[in-house]
């Protein structure tokens, strides 16, 4: 296998904006609280359509490098009135991914309730809102769905949604004064190592043995960051950081997992 590009010459790369993190030292970084968010849709229509997405599932985790996953949030979202022409497209997209039913799905909650509960989870106390991150490939969809849910629910917070790849690059740059490439970071976050780990997917997707789950995406981001960075900071991995029990009990890696593992797997050294 060809190793991903690992180090980009510093003079050719603009460093990510880390000003919002205020990571002045290791202790500030280790104790910092981050939220990883994802929203799944029943489908996607072309950019010229007013209704681009139809939100159906939301997942979020509260995370720190020192303590791992501190709490998680998950809800299914009722689609409400389905726009004309959306149903067939949505059904095809759902059948090929998360398989959440478009209608007659009793687990869904209305958008206003979901959004209120999400904001209470992220921001339970008055003060500055914490950083909220998602994968860059999902950012447009997640941002659009949040704004749409705010408009329909008349709840306005205008959250700033950041790319988690920039967070990882920034941590490496601040800790080691070198930057891994975005290609390497994406490979780090896309491993299949944790796909079948217990307590990663929501209960419904776990019971139906479906890998596509909004909560699982968020938890796997936390697992990958922990696996790559915790030992570099002298943090012992726990069940809150990665599903240790499943990995240690199996004592094996499947070919699918091996194809997806980043080049730094099992190494305590940064990827440069």
TrEMBL record:
Domain Maelstrom: 49-244
The keyword Nucleus belongs to this UniProt entry's keyword annotation: yes
Location(s) in or outside the cell: Cytoplasm; Nucleus
GO cellular component, one term: nucleus
Domain of life where this protein originates: Eukaryota
GO biological process, one term: cell differentiation
Transmembrane segment boundaries: none
InterPro entries: Maelstrom (IPR024970), Protein_maelstrom (IPR039259)
Keywords: Cytoplasm, Differentiation, DNA-binding, Nucleus, RNA-mediated gene silencing
Pfam families: Maelstrom
MF term (GO), any: sequence-specific DNA binding
Family (UniProt): Belongs to the maelstrom family.
Protein known as: Maelstrom spermatogenic transposon silencer
Species whose genome carries this gene: Molossus molossus
């Amino acid at each position: 296998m060809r190793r991903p590009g690992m180090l980009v010459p510093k003079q050719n790369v603009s460093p990510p904006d880390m000003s919002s993190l205020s990571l002045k030292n290791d202790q500030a970084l280790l104790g910092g609280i981050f939220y990883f968010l994802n929203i799944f849709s029943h489908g996607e229509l072309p950019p010229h359509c007013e209704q681009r997405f139809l939100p159906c599932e939301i997942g979020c985790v509260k995370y720190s490098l020192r303590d791992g996953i501190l709490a998680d949030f998950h809800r299914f979202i009722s689609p409400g009135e389905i726009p004309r022409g959306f149903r067939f497209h949505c059904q095809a997209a759902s059948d090929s991914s998360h398989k959440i039913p478009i209608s007659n799905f009793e687990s869904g909650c209305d958008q206003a309730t979901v959004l209120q509960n999400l904001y209470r989870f992220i921001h339970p106390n008055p003060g500055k809102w914490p950083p909220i991150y998602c994968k860059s490939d999902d950012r447009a969809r997640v941002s659009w769905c949040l704004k749409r849910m705010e408009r329909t629910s008349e709840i306005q917070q205008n959250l700033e949604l950041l790319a988690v790849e920039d967070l990882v690059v920034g941590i490496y740059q601040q800790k080691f004064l070198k930057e891994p490439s975005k290609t390497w970071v994406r490979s780090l976050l896309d491993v299949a190592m944790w796909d079948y780990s217990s307590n990663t997917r929501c209960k419904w997707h776990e019971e139906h043995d479906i890998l596509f789950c909004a909560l699982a995406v968020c938890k796997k981001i936390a697992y990958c960051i922990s696996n790559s960075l915790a030992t570099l900071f002298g943090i012992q991995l726990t069940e809150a950081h990665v599903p240790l029990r499943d990995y240690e009990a199996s004592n094996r890696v499947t070919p699918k997992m091996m194809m997806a593992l980043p080049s730094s797997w099992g190494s305590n050294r940064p990827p440069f």
